[in-house]
Amino acid sequence: MQSISVPDQFTSILPCFISFSSADTPLSCTLCLDISKTNVSMKIYQTGSKQEVRFNHTEFCNLTIFGSHCTFSDEKYTKDVSFYFFNNEANFRRFIYTLSDAGLLLMPSLSHSASNAITKVKFLPQHSFIPTGNYNFKKFPINRHIALIIRSQVTSITKTYRPFYPQFIDLVTQPLHKNEMTRFVKWKESNRSKLVTLKPLNMNLFFNKLHKKVTIQKDYFEYKEKLLNATTIPQNYKKNFSDVDKDSNRMKDSFSKKWNDKLRNICSVIIKVNLLKNGVYFFQGNFDIIKKLALILKGDCKKENDTEVPSYIKNMDSDEFEQFLFSCYSYFAQMFYVEGLEEKNILHGVLSSISSSAFNAFEKLTPCVAAYLTVRKIESFSWATDDLAPLFSKTFDNVFLVWYFFLSTSKPFVASALLHAALLFIAVPQLVNQNVQNETGVVAFWPNFKRGLKDNAEELKKAIEIATYFYLEAGKIDPHS
To answer: Origin, by domain of life (predicted)?
Structure first.
């Protein structure tokens, strides 16, 4: 037996016995397994005569692993070839592990198996990796080692180390995603007290949290006066002010008894003052945030049997209400601020920060999903723009639970980024099923995916719980701090 591992090629020479029928006496042979970047060669030579025994591995698509031998079969199990490694379990395992390491085997489940029971696996038409040849031959279950080897290859994937056969990642992602979801569920059972979804959210809880987190900005009217008395709009805000006016006009249609032109105009002024005072650029769609906040404060979004708006808000005069609304909006708008970027690069900068936080969580907690996204080059979160600007207020009917989650953290931007990450994590099995190949495919897929979430309370709850898992366990430093 001899094994050689070099960067571009792996060769293993193994003594074995081969049989083309259960009735045949197995032939004593030598198997020469050679794997390069472009080719897999499995040549068999009869012991003594050195005559080559015909075996074409590409004719087979199934492999059945028994306790001490394995059998290759075609699709209908009408043709098979068996390999025996009598009295040499190490060579038998070496052969199976090498095929696994090359990405040639696909198990129905990639969880930790506890037995050496007969296992039927798929034998793939192309390989994805060059094996390392470094395997543990302790007498643990073969199934467990196969799963570990496959997961090890998948979690080693980077932008510069990808499978030669891209479809490999699609084939393994479903079972690996299931494993990663199982790990989250176990974490959830041990950390229920940390979840904002543990008890029903009412308006009283929401307002108490909002009031604690928001700092009243007492200089609001000073900046408002400057805005209203200005003879010209500062050049660097002209486009932003124009976008605010466009969004304001989009909100003219009345859908609520509390929503009127007066409240709409107050919201427009507040956004513009925030631009001047805090330097936070405006994204079209941000108006949905302040509209929702204004209606919450007016008690217009209260559900049946919910608590009332607290008296300290109800009893505010018009100036106090406007100042408080400005302070609330400024808190949420600050999540869109990325220091040092020109206006034309702001959206890219925010999406880049979301991607950074998301992939930090994926790589630490769901590395197999990170590998899938890396291979498919799904990374910029360009599809998230429509969720980003309104801060999910158009994505979910119950946006208060989303915002309550943000308010419950010390780094609300990271929390929002990880909610984007959680939604993508949930979507991965559907992306695989629909054969989405790249980020353009995600952009096309996302609107339908969101429609299924809008009024789905259980999916929203799951997304926030996964985002909490990411937030608490990934240890990401807020890119805005």
So the answer is: Eukaryota
Distance CA 22, CA 92 (A): 19
> 49 with 174, same domain?
no
Residues 365 and 317 in one domain: no
208/106 same-domain check: no
Among the ranges given (164-173, 181-190, 306-315), the one the predictor scored with the smallest mean pLDDT? 306-315
Q: Decide which of 337, 372, 392 is a domain's last residue.
A: 337
Residue 479 CA to residue 382 CA, distance in Å, equals: 19
Q: How many domains does the chain have?
A: 3
Q: Residue 142 above 70 pLDDT? A: yes
- Do residues 402 and 390 touch, judged by C-beta distance below 8 A? no
Final residue belonging to a domain, choices 337, 372, 401: 337
Kindly report the pTM of this predicted structure: 0.90
Contact predicate 331/213, CB 8 Å: yes
Q: Hey, what long-range contacts does 349-354 have (CB within 8 A, 24 or more apart)?
A: 350/388, 351/380, 351/381, 351/382, 351/384, 351/385, 351/388, 352/380, 353/413, 353/417, 353/479, 353/480, 354/381, 354/384, 354/388, 354/416, 354/417, 354/420, 354/421
In this structure, are 20 and 154 located in the same domain? yes
User: Tens digit of pLDDT for each residue in 342-364?
Assistant: 666 778 888 999 999 999 999 99
**First-to-last C-alpha distance (Å) of the chain:** 58
HSE, side-chain direction, 13 A CA sphere, residue 404: 24
- For residues 416 and 476, membership in a common domain is answered with yes
| Segment 85-131, tens digit of pLDDT | 987 888 999 999 999 999 999 987 766 554 556 788 999 999 999 99
Tell whether 289 and 392 lie within a shared domain.
no
Asked if residue 118 and residue 20 are part of one domain, the reply reads yes
In one-letter notation, the amino acid at residue 347 is L
Residues 167-180 have pLDDT tens digits of 999 999 999 999 99
Report how far residue 222's alpha carbon sits from residue 273's, in angstroms, rounded to the nearest whole number: 10
**Do 240 and 315 belong to one domain?**
yes
The domain of 452 spans 166-195+346-481
Quick one: which of 319, 327, 216, 227 has its CA closest to 269? 227
- Could you tell me which residues come within 8 angstroms of residue 225 by beta carbon, excluding any fewer than 6 positions away? none
What DSSP assignment string belongs to 361-430?
Answer: HHHHH-HHHHHHHHHTT--S-GGGHHHHTTTTTTT-S-HHHHHHHHHTSS-HHHHHHHHHHHHHHHHHHH
- The span from the CA of 319 to the CA of 49, in Å, is 99
Contact of 18 with 44, CB cutoff 8 Å: yes
Calculate the alpha carbon distances from 245 to 249, 250, 262, 264, 336 in Å.
6, 9, 14, 10, 19
Residues of the chain by 3-state class (helix, strand, coil), percent to 5: 50, 10, 35
